[in-house]
Amino acid sequence: MNLLSAHNIEHSFDYELFSNINLDLEQKQSIAIVGKSGSGKSTLLHIFSTLLDLKAGDVFLFDKNIKELNAKELSRIKRDDLGFIFQAHYLFKGFSAFENLEVASILSQEPIEQEILEKLDIAKVIKQKVTELSGGQQQRVSIARVLTKKPRIIFADEPTGNLDKATALEVMNLLLEYVEQNDAGMILVTHDEELAQMCQFLYRLEGKKLHKVK
Predict the structure, then answer these.
(1) How confident is the model at residue 89 (pLDDT cuts 50, 70, 90)?
(2) 55: CATH
(3) pLDDT greater than 90 at residue 107
(4) DSSP string, 98-157
C-alpha cells in the first residue's frame, strides 16, 4: 500500500528551491534524503508532512489527495497517522518525561510500552521533569513520544542531531525496527551519510532535483 505519493512538487521563495519532485513511500519502507545545507531538504519534508502548504503538485497520504481534505480530516491524519521527529524536541517543559508520553498515549489511545523506554535508555529518568534531563535524554523522550502514538508514517528531520554516535545508531535501528514491525514508513532528512545508508532507499536533493542514489 502506498502511504505517501508525491507528484511534480515545486516550491520557491524569492527563487526556485526545487521542482518536479516525485516520490513514493510504501509500507515497511524507509527513505533517506541527503543534500547540502540550503538545498531544501527540510522544506520538502515539511511539504510531504503537510506542515508547509503545498504550492504546486500533489501529495497523496494513504491514497487521499491532501488538496481534497478539509481541515478536520487533515487534522485527524496529522494526529493519528503521522509522527514528527525534529532535532528540536518540542517537549512540554513543565511536565515530566512520563507526562509528555502520557499526552501522546491519551490522544492516540495507545499504551506506553516499557520496551521502548528501555531501548531508548530513558526508563530510569521517566519520572523526572523535562528540564532536569540532558539534551540527549530530552531527544530520546521526544522519539519515545512519537513511537507511543503508533504513526503510520514517521517524518524525521535530523532526529539524532543531539545524540552521540553510538546512541544515534541505536535510535536509528529502533526506528527501522518500528517501520518493519508496524507496516509503517519513514522519510528521514539527515546530513549523516552513515545513517542515510541504513535506509532502504537513498535520495540526494541537488540542483533543484531529487536524484535516487540507491
Answers:
(1) confident
(2) 3.40.50.300
(3) no
(4) HHHHHHHHHHHT-PPPHHHHHHTT-GGGTTSBGGGS-HHHHHHHHHHHHHHT--SEEEEE
